[in-house]
Amino acid sequence: MATLPRPSTKSAFHRPALDADFDSGINSSAAWTESNKPSIDLLRSTRRYVSESNAQHASLSDEELDEGELILGDDDAQPARALYAFEGKPEFRELDVEAGDEIDVLKADERKPAKLGLLPQSYYTIDHSPNGKQYPRQKEPSGDSITPRGSRRSISPPLIPQNTGEWIATFPSFRHSLLGGKSLNRFSTFVTSGAEEFVLKGSTVLPEADFTTPPSNQGHSREDTAATIDEEEQQRRGRQEADRHFVSAGPSWKEKVPPFRVLVHSPSKLASLLSGAYTVYNITSFFHSQEAPEDEDEERLTDEHEPDDPIANVTVQRRFSHFVVLHTALTRRLPGIALPPLPEKQYAGRFSDDFVEARRGDLERYINKIVRHPVARYAEILTFFLSCESDAEWKRRLPEHLSMPPAGPAFYARVYHPAFNLDKEDIADAADLFENHTRAVGKSVQSLRSIFSKVREARIEMSKAERLLSYSLLSLITSKPLSSSSTGFRTKTEPWCWRSNCHECLKLTKAIQKTSDTLQSVADIYNDHARRTQLATHESMKTTAHPSSIYEGVITTHRATVSRYNEAANGPNPDDDVANRCETVLNITMAEMDTYHTQKQEDFRKLTTEHIDGEIQAYEQILTRLYLARRTFDSPAFDELSTSPRKSSIYERDLANPQAKLNPKPLTQPCPHVFDSTPMRPVSVALQEGVNLLLSSTGRGSVFSKFW
After folding, report:
1. Is residue 662, in this structure, part of any structural domain at all?
2. Residue 398 burial (10 A CB sphere; 0-12, 13-18, 19+)
3. How far is C-alpha 183 from the chain's CA centre?
């Protein structure tokens, strides 16, 4: 910063009338000239400065010096040239300069807020030209009755080209001088979460006391049951303990509560006089023993395939509005945590079976994502949400959680981490690498969801193909073409032959009929697999969708904190306190990235294994039925077929109109993710079906033929 006097733009004196020409170029605002050679007066008149003592008192010097009183301290004042026009405020004793004005820099590193009359460093450049220190300089007398001493000048100092840098470099000086170091974007997560305020000012939260140590004024008094801590005191201590978070080496979050799982089930419809009808869901939390297996693979197998019986479980009833309260409270109390988005309020029909089931699945995935987070798992509002079984207790304590203020900087102040827990090289590149990875994962998951929809459609097409093959075989042995009457044999008990009482053809006819019925069962398996098992897998893919949007706040906070850390640690004015607080925020963001890394492995491992298990189960059912149909053609099962007459197949009735089974209803698509750009809602599918129903041709009859 440079301390400079403000030149008066409106003076009371009149300029002297000069007959000679004068220079009205870049220096005209600083001096009038008449002589042909540069002089000391010229240099005095073209430079503006103020003494350091006057700058300290935030006042401008008006005293006059003698002609011979020169300033010979060139080391104290550096010649400079203004790069941009700057309009100062008189009430702050700021300067008005124009581009090209020559100035003297007395203190380039002065940043104390008490020093007034300063000029941002980005508005001037140091003059390193040979003319910069060629002549000694004398303070210029100034006053209302004194005019600048002028002489005509024909030779002006040359302008030396200098690199002024990019314009974006001027913003840090604005931030420090005008905004007190705060960010210009007041809507970024770095600001709204309280991280910026914590970095700049810290937090007013006092260190928590030792909750296990009784107050010292109690002394050795006799224990009394009346002195036990009441419920409110226990809640207060529990809240304080839940607000303390720890980061271990890695950095990664330290788990204070063992993992557990939550099941959302048994939705039911209730009615209220105030809110009308609504749906409630039973939420059961299962807690398992913590006996760790010796082998890691054995632990994974136990967790995913053969879970131990829970040692305890708690069931409560909640409605969707209660989930909204939970999400709001978690967002306010855990501002530095990347929380999953809450499912949308309504997809289509409010009480339809498809909607209720879709919401139940989304709420179950949401709450399990919350309890899997090592910090959100022991949040007080989550414990209250999952354990409060009394309606009266819920109504009494719910306003307390709703009235709690946002944690803000206090959240970061209650995070404890080891010293030197960060690698400077890692934190510098972590945000870019993490953002690129999450964006790539998000795009791949969106493509995977789209392709998996085609896989489900392919299963439906496979079901239709198997069913059509079954009808064709049945039409073959009955001599009944599709969509026509029966011909080819005299009675239903006769075999597929022109001979009477042909036992060989009777056995073959019944075996082929068994194969036809088996193919119908295979078609049903394909259809059910696409509509139920694969739909659940398709819905589960939303758990891994849009990671870049979910962790956008973490990335923004990390980048802003790295910038503040570099300024505090490597800037011209190092600040150890700010650097230490930046390390706390960076430990949190790096721990969040580590949490995503862990959950990503769990999510995709579970997603892939569930898909494979579903495929294996479906194909095992298909193989079982195909094996049974195949044994029909081998003795002795094949020989026993001739002992009884053939019975009509239950699918022969469909031969007259097979299109009823060959054109099934459209697949139910997963409900959209909150961050999906294009809605994929069942209501849209219903509207599309209605339009297609009116516009498409049925081949014969009216459009209402599809209804019967």
Report:
1. yes
2. middle
3. 20
Q: Is residue 285, in this structure, part of any structural domain at all?
A: yes
- Going from the C-alpha of 637 to that of each of 627, 628, 629, 632, the distances in angstroms are 13, 10, 10, 5
User: Do residues 152 and 99 both lie within one domain?
Assistant: yes
Same domain, 473 and 408: no
pLDDT digits (tens, 9 = 90+) for 387-430: 999 999 999 999 988 888 899 999 999 999 998 888 888 888 99
- Six token digits for residue 14: 């009149």
Distance CA 647, CA 553 (A): 68
Distance CA 134, CA 151 (A): 19
Structural domain boundaries enclosing 657: 454-672
- List all residues 6 or more positions away from 411 whose beta carbon is below 8 Å from its beta carbon: 193, 194, 243, 333, 334, 335, 336
- 341, 344, 345, 349 alpha-carbon torsion, rounded to 10°: -160
Residue owning tokens 């709703």: 402
Q: b/e string for 574-597 if b means 16 or more Cβ within 10 A?
A: ebeebbebbbbbbbbbbbbbbbbe
Helix (H, G, I), strand (E, B) or coil at 278: strand
For β-strands 102-105 and 47-48, DSSP reports them as parallel
Does any domain span residue 294?
Answer: no
Selection from 456, 449, 461, 448 nearest residue 671 by Cα: 449
Give the residue from 568, 559, 589, 249 showing the smallest Cα distance to 420.
Answer: 249
- The whole-angstrom separation of Cα 290 and Cα 294 is 12
Is residue 229 in a domain?
Answer: no
Instruction: Tell me the one-letter amino acid at 597.
Output: H
**Model pTM above 0.90:** no
- How many Å is the Cα radius of gyration of the chain? 41
User: What whole-number distance in Å separates Cα of residue 313 and Cα of residue 687?
Assistant: 43
Q: Which helix (H) or strand (E) holds 398?
A: helix 391-403
Q: pLDDT tens across 452-503, in order?
A: 999 999 999 999 999 999 999 988 888 777 765 544 444 455 677 888 888 8
How many domains does the structure of the chain reveal?
3
